[in-house]
Amino acid sequence: MPNDPYLDASVRWKIQSGHALLREPRYREVVEFVTESGLATEVLRLIGSGKEADVYLARDGATLVAVKVYRTYRTANQVHRTMKLDAIGHLASWEFELLTYAWSDGAPVPRPLKREEHAFAMQYVGTVDHPAPRLKDVAGIDMETLAPRVVAAVERLVEAGVVHTDLSPYNILVDRQTPWIIDVGKCLRVDRLGAPPWLKVHQAREALTAGAQHLARFFAGRGVRLDAASLVERWGHSIERFGRFSSAA
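Above: the chain's sequence. Below: its structure in token form.
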């Protein structure tokens, strides 16, 4: 359980001392948290907002970074009272761990930098004026060239033992025709102990099947044919070393 023991000493202090906010922090309070915790030296602006977290463009010295801040109350996660801060911190810790693991193995994910409580800083993909667009929003790019690069990017992530369970054109950025996979908090590690290998691989196969279908539909709408079943078979070979992977499994 993420709440016992407490994830971070700072979270424990906030809860026990009564300094934990029982509401969602305002923008200025988020900026103060990011800078005071050392995640960045300056927050420039909000650049993205999802179901569970917001992403800010920031600077750490002269370097542009992205800071992902999990929301503590304005979220679908059902955890009550002040313990929510610690539970949401657990989500940030899990995503940061997965990001570190995947990046260390050479997967095309943003480089993780540092984490504090329910937020973490990572490599920023884009320019100071515009973040790299999501795959669903790209324009002016040859899709025939981009499609195999996206397929290879997913395969490289799988080779690292990390399988995205929510793979779609919404979770892939494209920077100068180079795909970057994001939101890895919605991933599973196929090599992680705690469950039978065959179960982890079965879950991976289901996730890869759904992801392949999403990408195949996206590229089909842009005149590029991808065979979802072939993609699953191709990606499946990359996790053979983690357990049995076949259509009969």
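Residues 197-220 form the longest helix (24 residues).
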